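Structure tokens please, single chain.
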Amino acid sequence: MAFRSPGLSFGTLIMVLFWGVVRANDQDSPLLEETSNSASTPKPTPPEQDENLLLNTDLPIFLAEPQNAFVVKNKVATLHCRAAHSLRVYFKCNGARNVEAQDFQFVDPQTGVRIMEVEANVTRDMVEEFFGKEKFKCECYAWNGKGSIKSQPATVEVAYLKKQFDLNPEPVVKVELGHHTELKCIAPQGMPPPRVYWLRGGQVLQSDSSVLVTTEGHLLISEARTQDTGNYTCVAENIAAKRMAPVSQIVVYVNGGWSAWGPWTDCRCPGEVLATGKTSTRVCNSPPPSNGGLPCHGLAVKRTKDCVLCPQEELVLDTAYDYDDNNVEPAHWSAWSEWSDCNDDCVKVRKRQCIPGTGITKKSCTGKDIQTNQCSSNMCRSTELTRVTEANIQSTQNDILLYIGLTVAIFMVCLLSFFVIRLYRKKTQQQSLYNMAASDYHPSEFFPEQDKKSLSLQPDLTQTMAACYEYPYTTPATSVTRSVSEHHYDVPHLASASDIQMSPATSSTLESSSGKRSLMSGSTNNSDSTYDVATEQVTLPLSSLPTAYAVTPTTSGNYTSATVTNTGAFLNLAESGVNLLVPEGAVSRSRKQEIFLSILNEDCFRPKLAEHLTQLSPVVSCGPNVSLNKAVVLRVPHCAELSRGNWSISVLQSDCSDSQWQCSVTLGQETINTGVFCQLDSDSAYLVTECMSRFVVVGKSVNGNAIKRLKLAVFAPKLCFQTTTDYCIRVYILEDTESSMETVFGQEKRLGGYLLDEPRSITFQDGGNALCLSLESISEGWQAKPGSSYQEVPFAHVWQANSNSLHCSFTLESYEVSRNLNFKLRVQQKGFDYQQLFDIYCRDEVPKVHLNSGTTDSKKSSSSAKNLIVTDRGVSTCDDFTFRLTKQVRKQLCHCLDPPTPSGNDWRMLAHVLNVDRYINFFATKPSPTDCILDLWEARNRGSNALTELRRIFSDMQRGDAVNVLDNCLGPNWL
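Here you go.
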């Protein structure tokens, strides 16, 4: 708190004088001579109490406080501060920011008082980067051992002056001699407010008794004089710039005036001797008309009645009388109309009409009949707002009509579907082979005795079977065995549930029935048949299963769950590449919500796709479908090769209560009503959605050149377990995602199979070409059964696979005792050069790569980690996830980047830099676009340097305020 006293001002002036004398001595300025000359003049003695206060005060005393200043372009604003009895003088801006300053100090030789002066430079960047409701303010602090004082705040603002005048003067103004006129000029907006003055003929106009410039900047001429004719320019100027309005011309015109009547003279025609009557004349020269002034009205000659007109004067006289008696007037302009409203180009218009003259003096008017002028910025914004409002009203009316039409159409479609479904159900009530319950099936009614035996007995190991590929074996959850035949689709009710393709009409029924499958015992099969896995199963009868049993997320695929509060959560299936980010604030404060995340690896959950469509990701389920305050971010891996840009990617969505798949979004065809935003990266898709359900990514080839990645895995039993001469090798063809092997691992573990080599990827291109697999370089003692060393999988079965474990089988037979087996397996798409070659070495011991690579001890150690869920299908976590950006930091960043800026370096540029601006309208529909973008950034950037990269992005965007938010809130050592 500064110490002030009523008697301090005079003592302060004395100290200022002393300081000036010392400075003058140092610089040899004329001030020294003036001071010495005036030394003899007696000076009033300052009051004793003021001098004592200056000399004996404990606190510092300000001799000069900082004043308000402006920053001009690249020129800084300099603040001055001077104090006595101070050990340190410094500046603080906005209460916290220290400003670099240069200080000077000296001691008054007369009084011994220590005086310090400090100067601080404030740059334009400092002022513009300050983010606050108040203006940029700086205060001077003076400190000594007794305490400190603070000066009055000095405001620093950026000086500017806009280019366009709010009101330009009229281009041409005509005024009659001796009359008054006015040129209106409203200067453009600026800081500090500009000074307005006028130029006449390029020289500054000096005010006099007739010419005056008002405080608003208007030019007034009370009595127009001939010398006032000229070109006038309105000038607005402040410390930032000088602006000149268009030149305006003032024309002072003079109407003609008659001279006095001349003396009477004889009225005599040329050649006549006698005069008849008298005549008198006058001239229009008092004053003569000038600068477009009107001529004199009336007769220039008057005669007596007995004056006879000469022939050559009759025409002139008739013209004069006609001009005078019939009130003949010249052509002239009407008054200007009112200014029109501002158009789209921010211009207003006014018009006038030409009134023609009468008689022989009828002429056209000179000049323009239309005049334009720039509107002020406020009027332009009002006009634009009105135009936008009208456009929005029209758009809203059109949308209402569209919604009404869509509602009627949906109602009609629903009504029609209702009748079709009722008709369909009525027709399907009849009993048939395709809908017969399992308990009603009796094999003896359909198969001969020898075929029934083949269902339970070992096949002939010496017979040769044609090579074939197949869909997955009957899963452990399947209770109906598969027949041993040459194809898969022999009898409909003998096929496993995983072989049945789903359709929209039957998917719900299949899903519920898939849960009614019994468990299989862990027996090992050694048959040579491609389909022999299903023949040796021990199954439970369907009738023994509970009818209410249904598939839940905990019974299929990886699964994790968490109780989510307002702080958010991060659910992660670590080995599958699937995770779910629930942002902070998605769940209300007073609420707790149990949320699960699961991968559905059962074949019955795969959607039945139309022709040319292919599945690119696993089926991922998250839920339950509850109302959330903010969108969640779901990461789903995919196997599409995006480098060529030949894909049309879609996201299918199904409610967790049924399997009715619907297209949620197709990339590139989003609308403002699209509920899911899909951010597609090279190997993953990030789904931003407020509705949790089942999702799967599918694709369609745009021009027949789309490529998807397939994963190849080779399995076989250990040689030491072989009890027959045949050895079955199974090659799986899967989507190349992290979770695709989980189903295969579970099946092969129960079958006693081992992974012979690391799984490998191969590209598979649209075009109709099959996938070729061939065995080569088989070691001695072994040979492939005839016709089984080469197989082809049709293109449609790979591209539109309805199974998570599509595979084909090769059968080798040994013709001598050998426990070593070597062979090569070549996989290639027909017509393409890219291929994969497996070089397999099978020994009597455990293969180098096998299914049970993770020991029991490792699983136990893994399970000791916090919130780690370990199953035979993978590992999932629900860690105590800490968001990188706290709620306060997010709020400040949204406050910085949500408002649009003229340069565009707001949330729109942030979306562009983060490569998530493919459909930027999705973020525009959110209450805070920046918050939604940062949620997606949290999900995509899990590296340790994510915050450092985000800070660099803000710096490249020239958003120093956002950089300061990260620096101030996260501390100086957060990097």
